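Lab notebook, bench 4. We co-purified these components, and the gel suggests they stay together. Before we commit to crystallization screens, I want a quick structural picture of the whole thing.
Request: model the full complex, all chains together.
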Amino acid sequence: MTTPCIQLHQVSKFFQSDPVFQNLDLSLEKGEIMSIVGPSGSGKTTLLRCLAGLEPFTEGRLLINEKDLTGTETNKRPISLVFQQPLLFPHMTILENVAYGLAFQNIKKKERHPKARELIQQVGLKGYERSYPHEMSGGQQQRISLARSLAIQPKLLLLDEPFSSLDVQLRIEMRTWVRDLLKEKQITALFITHDREEAMYMGDRVGIFHGGFQQIGEPDEVYQFPSTPFVAEFFGDHMVIDEHHYVPVQSLIVTTQDPNTSQYCWEGIVKNSIFYHGNRFYQMSLPSLERNVTVASALELKTGDNVYVTAYPERVNSFTNLKSKE
Amino acid sequence: MMKTLRHKQIQFWVYISILFLFPVLFLLYKSFTLPMRYETHLHAHFTMQGWVTLFSENQLIQATFVSLGIGAIVVILNLIVGLTAGYALAFYDFKGKSLLEALILFPIIIPLLAITIGVHIAMIRLGIADTWVGVVLIHLVPTIPYAVKILRNGYTSLGTAILEQAYVLGPDPWQRFLSIDLPLLKPAIRSTIFLTFVISLSQYVITAIIGGGNVVTLALVFFPFLNSANSTVLAAFSIWFALLPFLFYILIELLFLLLPYQKPWRTRS
Amino acid sequence: MKSSGTTKIWLLLLPVFLFLLLPAYGLFSALWSSLIHQGSLSLQTYQELFQKETFWSSLFYSLRITFIATGVSLVIGLLLTRTFYPVINRLPGKLSVWLPMLFPHFVWGYIVLLLFEQSGLFSYMFHHLGIIESRESFPILTNDQNGIGMILTYIGKEVPFVVLMLLPVYVQKNHQYKDLVRTLGGGRWAAFKDAEWPWVSPILLESGVILFAFILSAYEVPYLLGATFPEMISILTYDWFYAGDWSERPLAFAAMISTSILIGIVSWGLYAITNRKRWLLTKGKR
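Here is the predicted assembly.
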């Protein structure tokens, strides 16, 4: 087996004495895209900034192709970062923006512009070479920003919620398009988002981040088999029953009569109803679990109705990290 | 709304004309006409005499070069101090930051005359009194506080994000400064250069004390002229004081063109 | 905001620290020189200074001129900016405000001479309009005992300074605050007091302190437009500094140190007043 392209060994970051994350391990294969998803303030942006070298890791090592880059300056790292905002240089044309990084890479002046042109074509903006950033739309600017970061042929591309400043429609278009481009160019990338759908779509693997990785795995696996209650609630559509058990929401059954099953049945109160993809969903609170849950049901229920929510015992699962310990 | 704006514009130009434009235009007019005789009738005699006399004075030509030279060095030193301190103050938090900010303002609050007579003896001992070095140094005192202030604000409104974005793409700090900081800070740098040069040009008493009459700048030529020359020559001389920053400015703009990513023919809207 | 890279910060701040040595040394050296009397430390020079009638009359005269010139410049500057900032912020407006900044103070002083002296433009025009009979009947407005010429010069030069200081505040200010106050039923005064003054006052104060300090101790304009008596404090200092046998030099140092202390007290006082006012305002809101 080949050694992974990107390796993080036991990295930690502290601000003063407060840990942002501690003792992380992570490795990426060449050409792999990994999504990191977590709520805001979970420290995922700090991780990215540390990887880019904009902040130092407090402890631990970063290796790329087995070369230690922990102490390397930002500008010397073969890592490129696409920020939330496009941050194009306003005084340069699109062509100059994309070619910017090439100037610092021993690439002959003559070869820089053809290279940049090629990338501009690849991001679908041929013909805009001589335009200025302010003449472009938000989505176009973000594509240019991506092309600029790709131009330096980074060993690792970091994307920090690059679509968050775009509207919903455009986000969905962009994610498909960006993933295809990265795959085509075999770019190793870390993609940060707080949107789990985006994370699942973009990543070959996803990492759920909350002061450290809660779970890393393929999207389906993480979605279906969360390893901690946090992952179950944040990432999957699961209802956490207790510290050890959860049940997928879609397997919950709502009845108005007491079904008289002893184990996994809770009384609930209907709070409101919504339609989603043509189905009726009810949001209800389960006082005994101190939780709210949104369940699909064909029943006609009114706000304030008392109901029973039941789970088949065979659908109740244990968190994966507990299984492995057992 | 449009009407009130139009109205305001007219009002503004009336006030500005009275306060600023009229005096300057009158000065310009004076430089091209013979002095008025109180008793004679109202009519202007056009003359180039003022300007011809002015530029036939060797002393003036020399003083112009001395002023330009001293001004240029003062400007460069101001930019060095202003850009470094401005960057640190805009982007870093450190102990004693607010104290330092107050200290930087203090040279324009303490009387310049007090500082000048205070350093005079020391400059004599160091051998830089009566030389352009001493004059340059004393001209830094009333200028640097403004330079730091303007450039700090420039960096603050630029923000860290775009600088970090540039840094990730591979330039070393000096390359980044030339390709990103300098072009984007151009408005702030321009104001600094202009203001610094004008302040340096305006210093009479501190130049006289430290320069000891050996360093003859334009201000040092102007004062004796007040007693000897007629109002036409003096008016021309006065205009010359305002033209010089313009000449300097054009020079700087030409230098700016040597920087990367400058396209004067394509302006950004 | 970053908080790392201590060495880098000090390296960046090194030039400004080196620079600060110069005015700091100047001030301490002046202080030292004023405290040395016949080779030993004493307040003798200050005793001598404070007994001098010329010093006191010069100081009060300087203060009066300074307060008037500073106050009028601030008021005109503020009114111009808050009324016209959309116009000033465009290129022609900016250029017209920068125009007087181009001229040294003494050149602006010379313009005031050309306009206001007894043989100046206004006198000439009034004469030809038949309003006055001779130049002697035109009031003495330059090199006069009331310092009107100086005040006019400073107003012409400092109003643009105040405008340029205040302009960014008005351009960047969120004007919805004002609308908010108005929709809440506040009048024009309330809108000014609550939605404008808190933003403007710190800059106005800073400009005021700079102008006060500058005008009080500047030399060029009084030299050109001042009266022979009373003299501005800077002229008096310069005369003492260069008086024949250097015997009056300590007086020059003491006069400048006294002026510095006075500026310090006034700046601190102004600062304290505005801060207290702001404090009262915030208390009143609760």
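Chain B touches chain A at residues 161-162, 164-172, 175-176, 179-180, 183-184, 261, 266, 268-269 (CB under 8 Å). Worth comparing against the SEC data before the next meeting. Residues 45-256 of chain B form a domain with the MetI-like fold fold (CATH 1.10.3720.10).
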